[in-house]
Amino acid sequence: MKKFVTKTVSSLAVLAAMTAAQVEAKEVKTINMAYGSANAGSLDPHFSTKSQDKNIFGMMFNGLVRFKPGDTNPANIEADLAESWTSSPDGLVWTFKLRKGVQFHAGFGEMTAEDVVYSLNRAKDPKTSAVASDYKSFKDVKALDPYTVEITLNNPVPSLLGLVANYHGGNVVSKKADMEGDFKTHPVGTGPFAFVEFKSKQYVKLAAHKEYFRGAPQVDEIVYSYVPVNTSRELAFKKGTLDAFSGTREERWVNRMSRNKNINIAVFAPGELRTLHLNTKSGPLADVRVRRAIAHAIDRKAITQIIGNSVTRPNTSVIPVGYLGHTQEVPQYEHDLDKAKALLSEAGYGDGVTLEIIITKNEALLKPMQIVQAQLAKANINLVMNVVEHPAFHAQIRKDLSPMVLYGAARFPVADTYLTQFYESKSTVGTPTGVTNFSHCDVADDEIQKARVETDQQKQLDYWKTAQIKISENVCSVPLFEQMQVWGISKDIDFGYEFNGSVSLGPMFNEQTTKK
Amino acid sequence: MINTLALNVKTATVSTYQILKSSKLTWIGTLIFVIVTLMAVFAPYLTPYDPISQDPLAVLQEPSALHWMGTDSYGRDVWTRMLYGARISLFISVVAVVAAMIIGGALGIVAGYYGGRVDMMIMRVMDIMLSFPTLIMGLIVVAMLGASMTNLVIAIALTVIPKFARVARAPTLSVKKREYIEACYALGYSDIRIMVFHILPNVFGEVLVIGSLWIATAIRIEASLSFIGLGIKPPTPTWGGIIREGFNNFLDAPWIATYAGLAVLVVVFSLNLIGDGVRDAVDPKLRGE
User: Fold this and answer.
1) In whole angstroms, what separates CA A332 from the centre of its chain?
2) What is the helix (H) or strand (E) element at residue A482, kind and residue range?
3) Do the chains contact at A231 and B247, CB–CB below 8 Å?
4) Which residues pair with A98 in a beta bridge?
5) Do B56 and A302 touch (CB under 8 A)?
6) Nearest C-alpha of chain A: how many angstroms from B40?
7) Where along chain B do its domains lie?
8) B74 and A229: CB-CB below 8 Å?
9) What CATH architecture is B2-282?
10) Which of B59, B234, B249 sits opposite A387 (nearest CB)?
């Protein structure tokens, strides 16, 4: 009898322990999110500017300063890893005082000035960074003491804070982690969430960084999955396996989903400017008349009508709306098929032009491309489209393999970043210093370079305006429209702050975020 | 042996009438296939729309009197795209199967006729090709060569060539031992002349029967490859491509993928009915011989 009682008691104890463990296990708060791409681009924040990666970087890394959560306005930039900063009267020397006691993920120790110096130099080096051209004006970065960093510039930079914010090259990485291990597969930052694992074509898992300097996150885990098919993500959300997912960026989808009780549809900034870049140096497109014909053959209104006005924004400048330096006072190419045909004939292509181009399977670009294809066909400009996987698209267009590239991008909202990356000849794809100048554009180098070092703001704005006019006149590209970000987010999730935009192009969950 | 030889000869001479007589279902299958083919051929007369012209004001409309099968997310008429898509899908499938029939049939006859090492080499290569599931084989070829109409035809043809080679080789082995072939040797005919004029007619029937069955599979492969994005380049409509586009909008406009899926189902079903009928017609057991 005694034996029986002992056994019963002990088994009950085990059961109770197991139940407790289960209850504890159930309390792990995970946010499951999914993005519409087949795979990650790269896990290195200095190496990838691709939309599918930025969101993760935003949750894993900090900069010296940061965009206010939920805001994309550079005027509202606030302190992040730096507590305070000063600049010399000529704007050439910037001194940042760092927070003390900020811890890197995975026990990589305290973040100090050494890490900041290392990170900024890493962002400046074309071998380790895809945005090196943004940091050309950095003459020297040094640590004055473990908590003070001094940046010396060759010339004043339009918006220095943007270059040290939690975005692209401004993300601070752990020097020790980069020196010791493979940073590309095990990135280490200081952000609210730390990298746990990456399964190719499946997901990236992040865990709460308990020692995060703003306090431990209230959510334990974030699983960021790659689900390229729109319908699959939507069904997964309806089944309850997802809490947040990138939506179909079309009005009818937003309208339909808004009827669902459990979802908040977030349509937010920044707008990604969808631009059709035309190779100005080879083939029929080398003739400016052919490029102008293309500009006249495109009907922007019809494009936004198909995609929906609530998720798009019109723009005819090569710089997105709202960027410092943007102007709409550029040559306008109204939709006029007769003019397009006349220009083609004048250029000796009366019988039409056929171009073989590369485009991604990603609907957000494939769709506008197919609409453009149909519009150009009416002017006898025929596009043969090779539809490839999204990562292959990014790789091939950077090898200068497509004479026409439809690209959508949001960058730091100052004209300089956009002009440098897309229209300065140094950034021409297929060259060692190549970034994303798909058009081989070189008509505004002078203005772009002068504006970068100009201290008089009015003069700087004038240079940028001239650059935009020259690029438009030469039709290095045809800006189509701006595509806003669209995500579906469960009502169980509370950001903890007002979410109106995200330079990381996705919902940035942080230490304030909670899940019911 | 004599029996087998007799069968081969009969197989070759199966008349269309015999096939159709064999069952009502075969009639139905033939009728459906003929109707679909005619619709594909006369597509421009059956619709007022252009299959690739977009209408921004009529995006994802439900089926109506104006658009019988609704419109897709570009405002294109789905019924029109189905008709023109049938042209492409049927063309690719038929051309691929005919090409495979010619190449596979020739390889089979050569293997069977020469025997020995030639037979060994050809048939082992065929075995290797057969070891890949048909869709995987198609995928590999299109992924390697790139997606275009010619490459799709090549991909589908490659998946079915080994099957035709096998079917052609077996009767060749028995036919080549018959006296009249020996007589050909004695007369000093060339190998090619013997294969083309004296063996081929005896093998042709069986290869044709298999061909009718494989067109259905070819349609399925084409639809599958287009669905996973390895099909013909946009905006050319194909049934697989329409299903793919419809699938992206399935929750908004379920009719697009449903209609295209049904079309594939109906045509594959009709071809299978024809195939079954043909097989029954040439199967001596079922004919009570």
Assistant:
1) 28
2) strand A477-490
3) yes
4) A82
5) yes
6) 23
7) 2-282
8) no
9) Orthogonal Bundle (1.10)
10) B234
Domains of chain A by start residue, with CATH: 33-239+492-515 (3.40.190.10), 270-484 (3.10.105.10)
Q: What letter represents residue A226's amino acid?
A: Y
Q: Report helix angle B254-282 to B239-248, nearest 10.
A: 150
Choose, out of A306, A357, A361, A378, the residue to mutate when testing the contact with B (most B CBs < 10 Å).
Answer: A306
Helices (H), B115-230: 116-130, 134-145, 149-175, 179-187, 191-193, 200-227
CA end-to-end span of chain A = 47
| Interface contact A385, partner B, CB < 8 A | yes
Q: Quote the tokens at residue A390.
A: 């999204």
Mind listing the pLDDT tens digit of every residue in chain A (516 residues)?
555 555 555 555 555 555 555 545 557 899 999 999 889 989 999 998 888 999 999 999 999 999 999 998 888 899 999 999 999 988 899 999 999 999 999 999 999 999 999 999 999 999 999 888 889 889 999 999 999 999 999 988 878 898 999 999 999 999 999 998 889 889 999 999 999 999 999 999 999 999 999 999 999 999 999 998 888 999 999 999 999 999 998 888 999 899 988 999 999 988 899 999 999 998 999 999 999 999 999 999 999 998 998 899 889 999 998 888 999 999 999 999 999 999 999 999 999 999 999 999 888 899 999 999 999 999 999 999 888 888 889 999 999 999 999 999 888 888 998 999 999 999 999 998 888 999 999 999 999 999 988 878 899 999 999 999 999 999 999 999 999 999 999 999 999 999 999 999 999 999 999 998
Q: Provide the sign of the torsion angle of the four alpha carbons A292, A297, A302, A306, taken in this order.
A: negative
The count of C-alpha atoms lying within 13 angstroms of the C-alpha of B97, restricted to the half-sphere facing its C-beta, is: 21
Q: Where are the alpha helices (DSSP H) in A335-479?
A: 337-346, 363-377, 390-398, 415-423, 445-453, 457-473
DSSP-assigned beta bridge partners for residue A96: A85, A149
Nearest chain A Cα distance for residue B214, angstroms: 28
Q: Is the dihedral of CA A150, A152, A158, A163 positive or negative?
A: negative
